[in-house]
Amino acid sequence: MAYLLLLHQKMSLKRKVNKLTLAQTTIGTRKDRITKRIETVQKSFARKQSKLEAQAKRMTSMTNSIMNNYSMAAAQQCQMMPIEYFMKNSHSDVYEQYQKYQNRFSEMSKKENYTESADYKTLQEEYNKFIQSEEYKNAYSQAQNAQMQANQAMAMRKQMIQQYTSTMTTNFNDQVSIWLEAQTQALEDEEEMALAPLNEEDTLIDIEQESNEAQLSYAQSRLESIESALSNQTQEAPKFGA
């Protein structure tokens, strides 16, 4: 009678072990699916984050380029002016005479050994007298003062433009950083909402899997014990004809 009872328990436990083993396989399949769905959502939001960062980079790069071009264009307009420019404006007659000497020197330089010629020496004497004259010295001094004042003003304007472009660039880049941070936070919140039900389902599957594993382990242990008991009873049973 005890043998039959053990045999019945063995068959019942075998069915339970098979059922739990099948359930474990099914749970594993569901676990794989939910894991892939979670990974898909995470990859989707990672791509969105990459696009945001790329957009922010383009915005700052474009602004930096615009400000740099503006600064370079402004710097070209703030070039230091040569003294001849101011002499020409304030003392045109002296400047024209000065230019005539320069042109004559230039023409002479085209000839070989021109510095040895009498014409060159005569021209050099005339030129030296010219630049030592009070008229030229006065014109040069006034032009030099005007040049100094103008160049100082140009330097100040150039510095102001550089400060302006630097401040504008920094302010805009700060605004882009704030925008990116806000967009990133909103994206993270959206991702968290999208993942919440999936993570909950994943947790429930883990709990179910652990419970099923425990039940399967216990059923297999009980089955082994009963099979051992049945084996012992078989060996202890009287053998007819012995």
Explain the overall architecture.
- The protein is an all-alpha fold and 242 residues long.
- 90% of the residues lie in helices and 0% in strands.
- Helix 2 (83-90) packs across helix 3 (92-108) and helix 3 packs antiparallel against helix 4 (118-132).
- 4% of the residues are buried.
- The model has no long low-confidence stretch (mean pLDDT 87).
What is the CA-CA span between the terminal residues? Answer: 23 Å
Strand fraction:
under 5%
**Helix percent band:** over 70%
Compute the average pLDDT. Answer: 87
Radius of gyration: 49 Å
Query: What is the general shape?
Result: rod-shaped
Q: What does the main sheet amount to?
A: none
The secondary-structure class comes to: mainly alpha
Number of helices: 5
- Give helix and strand order, one letter per element, not per position: HHHHH
**pLDDT < 50 stretches:** none
Say how many strands there are. Answer: 0
What are the key terms here?
242 residues; mainly alpha; 5 helices; 90% helix; rod-shaped
